[in-house]
Specification:
single chain, 205 residues, mainly alpha, two-stranded antiparallel sheet, 8% strand
Length: 205
């Protein structure tokens, strides 16, 4: 009897441990949710500040008096819209004056070229006459005085040709200078109307 009662508490302790172990291994209750495929959407609100991407400075491409300034600070502007315009009459008069100067310079240049051609022809004739008579003096066909006179004529025609050529070069330079003035005047007139190169807002004027 004593041995039986000594083993009974040990057996009860083992049974209690097994019961607790089995209870701890039971599954906890869970919720099952079906997952569907699709985009993830996450809405949020945040304080932000905007700033200008680029600033375009528009300068007048040519000198002149401003006739119109059509926009004010803060006005929206679209690409190609007229912003300002210079006075047209002075620019037109400058173009007309440059055209007249250019035509006059061309006239003098053409006349100088014709004079060079004529001087070149006279120089050629004098050279032919001098060379032919220089061969004749060997055969005593002409006198030395006559040959010297032909040589002087040739030298004079050569000098005249050089002088005419220098005038042609001078008139050519004058034509180039007047042409540059004409191009400048036409550029100023063509750019007297200022248009916006971009879409944007007027910041200053």
């Amino acid at each position: 009897m004593n041995k039986y009662w000594q083993k009974t508490p040990i057996l009860a302790l083992v049974l209690t441990f097994l019961v607790l172990t089995l209870m701890s291994c039971r599954k906890a209750p869970t919720d099952t949710v079906k997952v569907l495929a699709g985009p993830i959407q996450n809405d949020f609100t945040e304080v932000a500040m905007t700033h200008l991407n680029t600033t375009t400075i528009i300068n007048l491409p040519s000198a002149g008096k401003l006739n119109k300034l059509k926009l004010n600070v803060g006005d929206p502007v679209t690409k190609g819209e007229v912003i300002a315009q210079l006075q047209q009459l002075p620019l037109k008069l400058a173009v007309r004056k440059a055209e007249q100067s250019y035509m006059a310079a061309l006239k003098y240049y053409d006349s100088a070229r014709q004079a060079v051609k004529a001087a070149a022809a006279m120089k050629k004739l004098a050279a032919i006459s001098y060379d032919r008579n220089k061969r004749l003096i060997v055969k005593s066909g002409i006198s030395q005085q006559q040959l010297d006179q032909l040589k002087a004529t040739y030298d004079a025609k050569t000098a005249e040709w050089h002088e005419q050529q220098q005038q042609v070069n001078a008139y050519a330079a004058a034509v180039a200078a007047v042409c540059a003035e004409l191009n400048s005047a036409q550029y100023d007139f063509n750019n007297s109307t200022i248009r916006s190169p971009v879409n944007g807002v007027i910041l200053s004027r």
